[in-house]
Design brief:
The complex is a heterodimer. By secondary structure, chain A is of the alpha/beta class. In chain A, about 45% of the residues lie in helices and about 10% in strands. Chain A has 12 helices and 7 strands. Chain A has a 5-stranded parallel β-sheet with strand order 1-2-3-7-6, with helices on both faces. A two-stranded antiparallel sheet of chain A has the order 4-5. In chain A, strand 4 and strand 5 form a beta hairpin. In chain A, helix 1 runs parallel beside helix 12 and helix 2 runs parallel beside helix 9. Chain A is globular, with a radius of gyration of 19 Å. Chain B is of the alpha/beta class. Chain B has 2 domains: about 190 residues, 3-Layer(aba) Sandwich (Rossmann fold), CATH 3.40.50; about 130 residues, 3-Layer(aba) Sandwich (Rossmann fold). Helix content of chain B is about 35%, strand content about 20%. Chain B contains 11 helices and 14 strands. Chain B has a 7-stranded mixed β-sheet with strand order 3-2-4-5-7-6-12, sandwiched between helices. The model of chain B has no long low-confidence stretch (mean pLDDT about 95). Classes of the chains: A alpha/beta, B alpha/beta. Chains A and B meet through helix 5 and helix 6 of A and helix 3 and helix 4 of B.
Amino acid sequence: MNDNPVPLSRDELLRAYRMMKTIREFEERVHVEFATGDLPGFVHLYAGEEASGAGIMMNLRKDDNISSTHRGHGHCIAKGVEVKGMVAELYGRSNGTCHGKGGSMHIADLDMGMMGANGILGAGAPLACGAALASKYKKDGSVGVSFLGDGASNAGNFLESLNLAAVWEIPAIFVVENNGYAQSTSRDYAVAVDSYVDRASGFGMPGVTVDGTDFFAVHEAAGEMINRARKGGGPSLLECNMIRFYGHFEGDAQTYRGLGEVEEIRKNRDCLKKFIQQVTHAEALTHSDLDGIDQEISVLINEAFDEAQNAPRPTEADLLTDVYISY
Amino acid sequence: MARNITIREAIREAFDQEMERDPTVILMGEDIVGGTGSPGEDDAWGGAMGIYKGLFGKYGNRLLDTPLSESAFIGAAIGAATCGMRPVAELMFIDFLGVCFDQIYNQAAKFRYMFGGKAETPVVIRTMYGAGISAASQHSQTLTPIFTHIPGIKVVCPSTPYDAKGLMIQSIRDNDPVIFCEHKNTYSIVGDVPEELYTIPFAEANIVHEGDDVTIVSYGLMAHRAVEAAKQLAKDGVECEVIDLRTLSPIDMETVIESVENTGKLVVVDEANPRCSIASDISATVAQQAFKALKAPIEMVTSPHTPVPFSPDLEKFYIPSTEKIINSVQKTLSN
């Protein structure tokens, strides 16, 4: 362990805070707007899980590739996908990140190394292996990171990918974002091992469990794995134990959760509060530093939603475009 | 200069020449090298059909044996394709594609559209289809219509060595995902193949036998049966125009319609099961677009709506035969 409780530069800390706070504000606003009925489809919110995405993405370069999950807004923002495009995408508008054809569950920006949120659980794991394999051929030192939840950790796609990555010794990192629930089914019921470290060792790769609400713990553990992978040290698995503030999807009544559970975690296990406490306690950042960022984010989110709500809608002609490159 | 070589050799030559030309082309699949990590010789198998034999010695780790994890390695090929590689992944039998179907129809097929036109996924999945060797229900199907049903993927099905080489090179260079289907009873078919690199564009059907009386449309191994039927019918003075589709998605309906407008009669031959098949699709399209040209009901010669049987006796009844094609042609003429 590093003796310094906040072992990042001031600029890096500001960037990490901006990442986490942007995700939080984005998701809180989506929560509000979804309730009005104006947002189509279904959305799965990342609020409460920001430290995981940010802790990992702060170690990544633009040319590193990630494959995400159905709960992908946070991964997109942390990987650098433009927020205004994302909001327009959620509204299904033609200026959205995917021109309104992907929506919340399929936002991708390959130029930013974001291979897509994914509506199929575990399906991103083979894709991240593909990115890692390409990196091995290109010898560019990039890595492929596969995010998945505790639910998808039981999918064959994921388990096959662990073995494939280990056999091929490719620079792949598997991040199990364990928020305790696969929809409504608890992780304790559905996963036979107590720790994902056991599952990693079963596939011949190192595994580490961290408190996924602690940005610095995630950042340090992910950093070691990513650096090892960049140097040809092969794949690893990181388990981030974390919580979600909202239901599986917006509209989930969450009756499967314990009485007072959500209130308790919001009060005592909020990763953003923890980060603020850590950086201000260490006097690495001041409240005034953070307030300045908060104001900028507030403006950005307000603009993004205002603009998206007034953005052009796709036309019938758009329905038929971009099925193939040529056909 | 053209030589007489087999489909097996034509596909190997396509890989060899494309790998030499383009360093981003990689090949992967179960046993495509054969012997990786084993105490015996490397390149022991060169794939279940020996297609890749010799390539490992030339291209080394650009050929990858895979664990028996179809979802993982087909998905990895797709992922690598979005990251600048041109992978060709082999899944021995088309029947096995069900194991990793999600990666094909929810992932590769959807990226271009779902990501707003920004993704390129130049992956080729090559696979073997068809009945005829008593491999029974799980190793003999003609599942081509399952793939043509899905927007976002292309489906290629060569019948000759010339087409196999040209279409494989086109498939590798194509920037959309391609399912490349080879009938398992066509590998030893011999034909003229130029030594140099060439491509055959998709959606260009080939008229392999000319005639004005009846149009027969087919693809893959069945195209050979259709030509055989046409030759026999010619002895009785019936002139059939046989169209080998070569690619099923995209499909060259123009050539089919043009021919039917000339002959007024259509027989479609497809080894796939009949419901929602290539045969039924062509029949429907012709009925929609050339109804007035038709002088007789359209005939479909397909396998029955059953799984592929094991017994050689039953399998013979299952596969569309030259005789059945001839009977169907005569039926259109009797109207």
